[in-house]
């Protein structure tokens, strides 16, 4: 019942974020909050004026004449859109400047963490029950590594697993990032769908990767780990491993319902020949368990000959059983750490593997970050230098496979990687180069 003129006077004192929130109350507030006079005041106070009309004092902008060129014949909301467009463009420019420099070892931007902070990027988990109701999980702990970020959500208020149908992972950015303060979860934000997982028959349809006294871990591809309480069969925590390659794009450029589609590779002129195989590939490998790093290494000049192509895969041997000079020790005992408000634990023989494979031009070719597990092999060690048990770790997705063999040395209490092989799908290679292996 308050007169529109009085509401307009109140709205004129609001900042941009508050004005956008007020516009969501109802249709009447939306139309009033679109007023060009209010938004021109905000626009001109934030951006350097280019016309004489914008050089007026703030008191004058409150009573801008309707015949003013900046307001006349402009549709309601014009200056709001202009302001938002300029703010978004300014943030994108800052982010692009930060990701310009590339690490020669990983082929990824050096300042990923700073770029994410500049964009105000965060991640949320949205659980949808069978009735369509959404449960949003905001609170998350972040752990940054060389090539990935690990995100852990814990809550004392997870919905019952039996009523849930899907889990969606979103990247969230504020519509108007403010570098001076943390983004408010109640402010206007954009959602970008990263991945969607179906939770029906979770324990039967997903890969079990380990357990401790309190929780069981299940992997949902790509890169998601769900911890279930052993006694209650309820969610204890959710952990996502996100590789930096295309992370900003996936987390900001998708919509709330459609994932961002990666652009196709544009192959350069080269001597790519199925008779010759791949050459000059580089691998950056990280193995970690949350806060602990077990291995971080770069392997250069990897190649694949014609004889290494079989069963739809091209084989790249990184560490060979036959060459013990390249066998690698791991630092510490493998395990994946987790923590909630009340409990914490460590699941042994489970860890996160980050693979960054660069092609001969140094461009990221195959990248992933995923929780994996190690299991005891049935075969005995045939290596003269090692007398311990052999363990294996295997990972596979639509683009390739990773096979790792490790030996446990009881004397020194450490694991050694004695065999590490990548298998790249010929379909992936053909799509990348436009060839036919």
Automatic annotation (TrEMBL):
Gene Ontology CC annotation, any one: SCF ubiquitin ligase complex
SMART domains: FBOX
CDD domains in the record: F-box_FBXO15
F-box domain location: 1-42
Pfam families: F-box-like (PF12937)
SUPFAM superfamilies: F-box domain (SSF81383)
Cross-referenced InterPro entries: F-box-like_dom_sf (IPR036047), F-box_dom (IPR001810)
PANTHER family named among the record's database cross-references: F-BOX ONLY PROTEIN 15 (PTHR46731)
Protein's name in the database: F-box only protein 15
Species assigned in the record: Charadrius vociferus (Killdeer)
Source species taxonomy: Eukaryota, Metazoa, Chordata, Craniata, Vertebrata
């Amino acid at each position: 019942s308050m007169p529109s003129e009085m509401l307009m006077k109140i709205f004129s004192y609001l900042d941009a974020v508050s004005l956008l929130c007020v516009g969501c109350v109802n249709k009447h507030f939306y139309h009033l909050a679109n007023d060009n006079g209010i938004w021109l005041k905000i626009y001109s106070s934030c951006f350097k004026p280019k016309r004489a009309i914008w050089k007026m004092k703030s008191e004058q902008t409150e009573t801008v004449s309707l015949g003013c060129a900046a307001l006349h014949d402009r549709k309601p909301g014009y200056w709001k859109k202009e302001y938002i467009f300029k703010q978004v463009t300014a943030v994108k420019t800052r982010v692009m400047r930060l990701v310009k420099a590339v690490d020669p070892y990983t082929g990824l931007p050096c300042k990923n963490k700073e770029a994410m902070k500049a964009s105000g990027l965060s991640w949320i988990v949205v659980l949808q029950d069978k009735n369509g109701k959404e449960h949003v999980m905001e609170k998350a702990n972040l752990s940054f590594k060389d090539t990935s970020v690990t995100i852990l959500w814990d809550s004392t208020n997870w919905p019952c697993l039996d009523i849930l149908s899907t889990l969606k992972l979103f990247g969230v950015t504020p519509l108007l990032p403010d570098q001076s303060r943390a983004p408010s979860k109640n402010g206007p934000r954009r959602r970008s769908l990263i991945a969607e997982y179906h939770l029906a028959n979770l324990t039967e349809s997903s890969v079990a990767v380990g357990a401790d006294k309190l929780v069981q871990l299940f992997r949902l591809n790509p890169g998601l780990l769900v911890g279930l309480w052993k006694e209650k069969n309820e969610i204890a925590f959710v952990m996502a491993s996100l590789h930096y390659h295309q992370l900003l794009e996936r987390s900001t450029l998708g919509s709330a319902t459609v994932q961002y589609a990666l652009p196709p590779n544009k192959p350069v002129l080269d001597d790519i020949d199925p008779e010759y195989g791949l050459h000059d590939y580089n691998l950056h490998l990280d193995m970690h368990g949350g806060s602990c790093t077990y291995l971080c290494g770069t392997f250069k000049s990897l190649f694949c000959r014609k004889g290494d192509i079989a069963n739809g895969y091209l084989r790249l041997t990184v560490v060979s059983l036959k060459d013990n000079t390249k066998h690698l020790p791991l630092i510490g005992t493998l395990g994946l750490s987790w923590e909630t408000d009340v409990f914490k634990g460590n699941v042994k023989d489970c860890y996160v593997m980050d693979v960054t494979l660069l092609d001969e031009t140094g461009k990221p070719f195959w990248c992933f970050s995923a929780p994996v597990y190690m299991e005891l092999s049935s075969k005995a060690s045939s290596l003269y230098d090692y007398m311990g048990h052999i363990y294996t770790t295997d990972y596979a997705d639509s683009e390739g496979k990773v096979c790792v063999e490790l030996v446990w040395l009881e004397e020194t209490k450490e694991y050694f990687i004695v065999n590490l092989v990548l298998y790249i799908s010929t379909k992936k290679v053909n799509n990348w180069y436009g060839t036919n292996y």
